[in-house]
Structure formats: C-alpha cells, structure tokens
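ingest -> validate -> predict -> emit
validate: passed (alphabet ok, no gaps, 315 aa)
predict: started
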Amino acid sequence: MQPSGISVIVPTIGRPESLRNLLQSLSIQTVKVSEVIVADGSSTIETEAVINDPQWRQAGLIIRHLQVQPPNAVRQREAAICESVGELLLLLDDDVVLEPDCVEQLAQAMTDGSEVVAVTADLKNESWSRPTKIWRWYLKYALGLDEDEWQGRVLGPLLRFGYYIPHSETRAIEWMGAGNSLVSKSAYQRAGGFSDFFLHRCTMNEDVDISIKLLRLGTILFCPKAKLSHFHASSGRLSLSEVAEDDIHNRFLILHRTVGYNKVKAFKLVLLYYFIETMSDLFGLVRLKASHNRVKRISGRSRAMSLIILKSIHN
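emit:
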C-alpha cells in the first residue's frame, strides 16, 4: 500500500490541544499519510492556529482545514471525505493518539484479502466493554449464544462487543469504530456513506450504521497490532441527556431503515434496550450512585421513545 493512498479524516470541535496531540502522532508514523483533512465545527480560531503550525509541513504532514457549520460529526466527516484524494480513508476522532506504527499495521491488514473493506484499530488505554449480567442472560437465553460467542459481533438491539480476550492476530468483526478505522473509499461510496437520520450532532451509533452497510460488500477486520489511545476530551460534548436521546432514537432508525426491520420489530428491540438500560439506572439511583447523571440518561431515553412513537403515529 502506497502512503499516498491514505487520507486522514478528522472532525473536530473546540479541542485544539487534543488535535495537536493527534497531529503530532500522525507526523511520526512509520507509513506516512498523503493528507489530513480537519473538518472544523468550532467557532474560534484556536483550531486553525494549531493546523497552521509550520512544524507539520516540516515533518511532511499536509493538513487541509475545512470549516463546517453547524457542527455535526457525520456531516463533518462527509465534507472531508468529499474533498479527499486517497483511496483509503483513515477515520479518526480528534482526541486519539496513534502508536508510531498504527497506520502501517492498519494498511498491512487491508491487504489480507481482496474482500477487506475496513480495518479497525485496538484501543491501547481501554478495555472492551463486556455485557452486564442482564444482557448476558439475554444473549444466552434469548439468542442462544454460549459464553463469549458475542465477541466481535452486533446483536439484538445493536449491542456491539469487541474482543476482550487478548488476541494477537487480525480477525473478522461486525463493526468498526468511526474514530479508529481505515476504510476503502470505494467501498464507503458503494455502501452509500453515512445515513442522514441522526438526531443530534453527536450522532450516536453512526459507526454501527456504516458498518452494517460495509459488511454487505466485504469483511471488516479488527487489528490488535494497530494501537491508539483515546482520551475522551470533555470539551465540545453534548449533555448526557442529549446523548441518551440520540442513542435510543438512532438505534430505532438503524434497525428500521438500515437493517430493514419493520417498525414493530425495530420498536420492540429498542423498547427492550430502553427497559434494561433504564432499570439499570433506576437500580443505581436506589444505591445513590451518580444519581444526577442517571436521571439525565433516563430523561433523554424517555424523550427519544416519545419521539419515536409520535413519528410512527404521524407517518
């Protein structure tokens, strides 16, 4: 894979220092990228100042700055992809830092077979989330899965799981992260790109949505040798209530429009998700654990359920 074939796509909003750390890690990659396109949803000049720092050009890193308003992670990515020249798209969040050989490992994994459409990197500073006890019961008794058979899969109401038992070789996975993955641009275009129905600008679950589309064209791989760290910058984020609202709303539309379930089946799955997650938060309230945050999540999910019902009745 030639380095000139890789365009880095970075949506950002109000995180200049996080962006600087990302660019620094890109500037020292063992396989150089051809360009970095920063789709900026900020309303200040700090981000542009970071991008215009002469150290990047001295390091051989070509950065292009796009102003995208209003901020929306999906629309920002799409704007940058439309301007890109590479045959491969490296989708990154603005608060990740790559290991020096991350791009090289991802590019190598893309050559594992002609059917590979995307490769996702491992998170060095995080472990993959495991199903809670209630979700384990669902996976075992409702879906008939043995212990650990859910690893790497997207199941039921879009429950997604990584590989939390350590692995060293690439393996197939049913979803890719929108902030840590290398994607074939032609496959992305043939898949139709990101959907247009996401509720708020944080666009929860857009990675699952595009993954479902890409899997119809080929294989997505998880590459544990490609590593980066995710630092979850706090600035520029929506409230917990809005994020929870996004989560429910977008799950329903992905199940209905992208997966193709009828509205009744999609609603039943989302209702299951709503019930289990809300019961978990209510149990946490009883135990007085982060009660304020739990109330916000319950409120957001409830608004989304009401919105889904109203839209369904109206249509």
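The mean pLDDT is 91.
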